[in-house]
Amino acid sequence: MFELPKLDYKNNALSPIMSEQTLDLHHGKHHQTYITNLNNFIKDTELEKLSLEEIIKKTSSDNTKLGIFNNASQHWNHNLFWKCMKPNGGGKMPSKLEEKIKKDFGSFENFREEFIKAGLTQFGSGWCWLSIKDGKLVVTKTPNAENPIISNMKPILGCDVWEHSYYLDYKNKRPVYLENFFDKLINWEFVDSNL
Ligand code: MN3
Prior knowledge:
Blueprint: H1 20-42, H2 52-59, H3 66-83, H4 95-105, H5 108-121, E1 126-133, E2 136-143, E3 154-160, H6 167-170, H7 174-185, H8 188-193
Antiparallel strand pairs: 1-2, 1-3
Bound molecules: manganese (III) ion.
């Protein structure tokens, strides 16, 4: 049985960048629903004994298991997403991460631009990511529930660009949401700890 993880901050702690109402719904309802669905899907099946990552990998290439994959992957994605944010986030990152970003993207500004662009150009629902692939940092985007781990990458930062993540606070302004997420919410110490 999977359970909803507690947030490391209060639901009102990211306001006004991400409002209490958004977190109440996004964490308490949307994320909880993925977990409830996943638990119902795997109950009394062979998948019940597997880890979340194992379930994701096992179901990702099987179209008859799409419902299980979607809910398992969304559970994983949101676990990472909550950790990637903190009150008064953004700002200066730890030097180990900063050096790696400069090495792989040329500059912090290039990385920022690429990450925000990935979130902007994800048509419809999905995610943008910073992942490690073959020892190198890469920015990618995925539709719906999809996750870079099924492409042999290790995501270390993820931003939810489903409308439920920003519509109450930003309406249709996804670019403003992405800039605010990047500049004011990211917990760089957590991202650095994933290196
Ligand atoms: Mn979401």
